[in-house]
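Practice problem: predict the structure.
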Amino acid sequence: MTTGIQSFFHAATSTYSHVVWDTATRAAAIIDPALDFDPASGWTGTEFADSIADFVAKQDLQPVWILETHAHADHLSAAPQLKARFPQAQVAIGRGIIEVQRRFGKLFNLGPSFRADGSQFDRLLVDGETLPLGDLEIRAIATPGHTADSLAYLINDAVFVGDSIFMPDMGTARCDFPGGDARVLYRSIQKLFALPDETRLFMCHDYAPGGREHQYVTTVGEQKARNIHVGGGRTEDEFVRLRTERDATLPVPKLLFPAVQVNIRAGELPPPEDNGIAYLRIPLNAFGR
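Answer:
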């Protein structure tokens, strides 16, 4: 059983989306698809998602899953647009999304019409749960710490890690969002480090520090040896201190409010109001600082 992998780079948000498939049956999963969004004008677009869908169609793949590693704070999900193109695909995320929905539902004052029960998604996953992908198997690895709903997906010798860990010279995800916990993230990363050293890790983001070329694949062994935040034998207490001090200096992500209030809805935009226009909410003087 062999795995095909094709990765797509969304330059506007430095996001990597991935298509993974069983080469025998052509069953496929689309991981972390991004929607085009211009925060200045409020316009959304599907050019990037269409490039993924066109690849899937050209390769005669059959998407059965659209997998979110978590409710992202740096890009809007294109899950609904891809599901419209491939209606047989189910959208899945970690069961921790319920906690994320409850926290941010209150922040955005979404009211009783917003159900904070995960029902916007087709499937809620827990640690160790498996999904079929043709003759292959997808195993969910819960990696909370950055967010409560964070998952990594293990498929053969490849893990799609979401935001929990980045390329070795970038380190790890921040833990200062509501529900984040640096100690929990450290322990989640140790679960990834327990995999064989040759296991490939596919990133969700790369910001090319120092102006280097963008990269998105590394290995467990390389991360254990070289990750600037959690590699080289760094202890849990050392990591918590480093992560906490660093997080205190970081700005709020530019797309946090648009992204999260869309992504906790499984990528659906807010419902239109009585004038036929949908609106995003920005809480004033209520977050950060």
